[in-house]
């Protein structure tokens, strides 16, 4: 498989799935640690992700005087860098892929403007690309308590994480009042946990978040494996022949990642998790429940894995909290609906935020799955190869979060045609 392979065909030779699969390091942790390390001016980071989103963040943070920063299709890079560059007073442009220019950023830009940043939109108002024109710092006065912001939490938590991370640099710190239904909250908690690890003083009071104006301390950190990436292996164990089990190294029992919720979800979809010593988990196939109802507000990146798996297993599933899926790498609800239909599955909008997964006659028999520039579409459908031959288009999309995904499939016994190249 080369960087430009149009598609990859997957087959499973039969027999149980067994062995060890390597998951990448968490890109969410990696990208926070990189921003905080840049602000702390020191500390060693171990096990950084090889995801393109992280490699890109690392490269861009080293580009001191670039006239343009290209965040490509990486949401965290676009949002975290906007806050970092704006608050460090940089004058530069920020852009991304065509899709990134459709992903909203007004909530973050409005908040940064209140903190003195001068930012103008170069295309459509409220969306990248933008030009940063420097910053008028706020004066430090004796009386001021925190600098206060009110930020809506119902579009993307990445705006809030981006603001929190620059909070320690502000003369009065930051107090953020959250409004609306806050989505992806575990990512906000992860941000606060990493900030504390690097010496910041912050408090999570529910609808109020506070960051004191005390600098980060250079600190070392070892990034955990990525639980969102682990979810695809869970789906594979659930769909594999009886007697399947798999171990996944680098995953912690006490994780900062909300997508560890996959452990509980999969107890209902046919996989039991055992936490072994040395940060390894062992997955074993069990019988699935008769039905599932799951809210994805806290873990939107698991929705595709679960929708495809539930359809394939024929477990009627009610999914809620999917609002943010429409503004991610693609409109993930529409993409799921189109692709599930090819197999006899369906994701039906039942109104009032409820979606139902159904599969009367789900069949895997040589279908071709389109991936919509979305790594998670490719990885969520790949496990279906355990039930029949399957082709996935534009397989290189996985490089965003899991460049070694196809290689790991091969290692665990799948046949991939063409074979994966060492690096995409
Ligand atoms: O902060 C992060 O690392 C992320 C937050 C989530 O986005 P939203 O907050 O936009 O839901 C998630 O979907 C994304 O993959 C990573
Ligand atoms: C939504 C995702 O990423 P981002 O928003 O950082 O582009 C994702 O990885 O599923």
What does it look like?
The chain is an alpha/beta fold. It folds into 2 domains: 7-25 and 224-417, Enolpyruvate transferase domain (UDP-n-acetylglucosamine1-carboxyvinyl-transferase, Chain, Alpha-beta prism); 27-222, Alpha-beta prism (UDP-n-acetylglucosamine1-carboxyvinyl-transferase, Chain). Helices cover 29% and strands 23% of the residues. It has 12 helices and 22 strands. A 4-stranded mixed beta sheet has the order 20-21-1-22, with helices on one face. β18 and β19 (354-359) form a beta hairpin. α3 (75-87) packs parallel to α5. It is globular, with a radius of gyration of 22 Å. The N and C termini lie close together (8 Å). The mean pLDDT is 96. Phosphoenolpyruvate binds at residues 74-76, 301, 328-329, 376, 401.
